[in-house]
Amino acid sequence: MEGVKGLESDLEAMRQYFRSGKTKDTAWRQSQLKGLLLFIKENEKLIFNALKKDLGKHPVEAYRDEVGTVTKSINFALHGLKEWMSSKTAKLPRVALLSSAELVPEPLGLVLIISSWNFPFGLSLEPLIGAIAAGNTAVLKPSELAPASASLLANVLPSYLDIKAVKVIQGGPAVGERLLQQKWDKIFFTGSARVGRIIMSAAVNHLTPTVLELGGKSPAVVDSLASSWDKQVTVNRILVSKFGACAGQACIAIDYILVEKRFAPTLVELMKVMIKKMFGENPRETNTIARIVNQQHFLRLKNLLRDPAVQNSIVYGGSLDEKNLFVEPTILVDPPLDAAIMTEEIFGPLLPIITLDNVEDSIAFINSKPKPLAIYAFIKNEKLKRRMLSETSSGSLVFNDAVIQYAADSLPFGGIGESGVGKYHGKFSFDTFSHYKAVTRRSFLTDFWYRFPPWNDYKLLL
Ligand code: NAD
Questions:
Q1: Residue of the nearest CA to atom 34 in ligand 1?
Q2: Per the omega criterion (within 30 degrees of 0), is the bond before 454 cis?
């Protein structure tokens, strides 16, 4: 589909195709999932090239976060599909004598997927897997800010899929807004809370159910770990998930760290050593850190970092290379809490550390902010773990690692409050794009006579 020319008639054709029942076939769904798999397999090199061009991602990172993850998810869906599609029996009250009931998953119809640029394949295809597996027709609008990836999706993906059922439309906010004027059976959006609000208000017109996969400031709490092994593992995991996953341009990246004052110097020293080990003495020359997506985001990060209020907080890094859209992995200790770096989502390789008198204070700190997409808690103390679990609220909670939850098909992925609405991944994706129809089957054989007027003293037995 080129741009939005002929949009209304194209969408009407897709609705009619859905009504033909074709997309409900198990075989059709399987063939589309296999088509997606083949797209990934046959175009792996092109995908790596596009990710290099758009974001400077190293192929190993690109494989881990996009090609490999999506392949895993498609295989998981292919394996589970028949079971997911099967109806599930349900219990009825006694009054429905000689009856049976079931939940029958049915596709919603025509769905819209709008995705973000930071994982342009993963965040487009992961929801598409769910949409197809559930038997829907779908329009995908990737982000214009990763143009090489968007163009590969628009120009190559359709030849692997049923083009009557899946369309890719390229474009930015204007195209997005045009799409939002149409009637959809579900809108699945990945992006910022600002645009999320636009999506939700547009959805009101047609009462369209909406999933919003947003972001925010996800904290990591680091306890004063006793053994040097635990400290090292913690530092390795923090660094790879912050700087080694799209250079911190990830919705579930650690945004900032909370740590006890007495442990902060040790943590910083360990981080300095490991950053050099992972990304070299001259990180500008490394190809293992992704680049900032464009100049606008580069300047946004530059402003966060060049804010006079945070200058004294920078303890490592801080150099910028505008020509190459490179921001050095940077650590800050105790920037003012009202500085933009601590009030806005960072979405880049800047890592503030906030010190606390007691690690237990981290719970109150987190609870004073909007509910995050993720909380990472590097702690061994079981009592504190229990408190973290029961006293905080977030899309996900990971003990002793970060970002790894994204790869789990068995866990719902999504936010809460400001970090999002709805969930997906694995069977949750299938459920997100399905309606569970409640079907009750009654026999004509018999009934309780007191179910019918005139009423008497009997109470209806439920
Ligand atoms: P964005 O909201 O600017 O754009 C997201 C998508 O919306 C793009 O495709 C864009 O073209 C489209 N869009 C922009 N304006 C629109 C409008 N007015 N109407 C309709 N569509 C419009 O976000 P972004 O810069 O691509 O991504 C960064 C944000 O996304 C961060 O906040 C990040 O945390 C979040 N994010 C969340 C997840 C998640 O899975 N929860 C994943 C990645 C990114």
A1: 215
A2: yes
Count CB atoms within 10 A of the CB of residue 132: 33
pLDDT score for 2: 46
Check pocket membership of 176 for ligand 1, CB cut-off 6 A: yes
CB of 128 closer than 8 Å to CB of 140 = yes
Q: How far apart are the C-alpha atoms of 447 and 96, rounded to whole Å?
A: 8
The answer to whether the CB of 135 is under 6 A from ligand 1 is no
In this prediction the pTM is: 0.96
For the chain, residues with pLDDT lower than 50 are 1-2
251 is catalytic: yes
Looking at ligand 1, which atom is closest to the CA of residue 171? 11
**What is d(CA 95, CA 56) in angstroms, rounded to the nearest whole number?**
64
| Ligand 1 atom with the shortest distance to the CA of 413 | 40
Q: What is the ipTM for the molecules in this complex?
A: 0.97
Tens of pLDDT, residue by residue over 41-54, are: 999 999 999 999 99
Give the contacts of 92 (CB within 8 A, at least 6 positions apart): 99, 100, 101, 440
Atom of ligand 1 nearest to the CA of 420: 41
pLDDT score of 60: 97
Residue 152 confidence (pLDDT) = 98
Residue 213 annotated as catalytic: yes
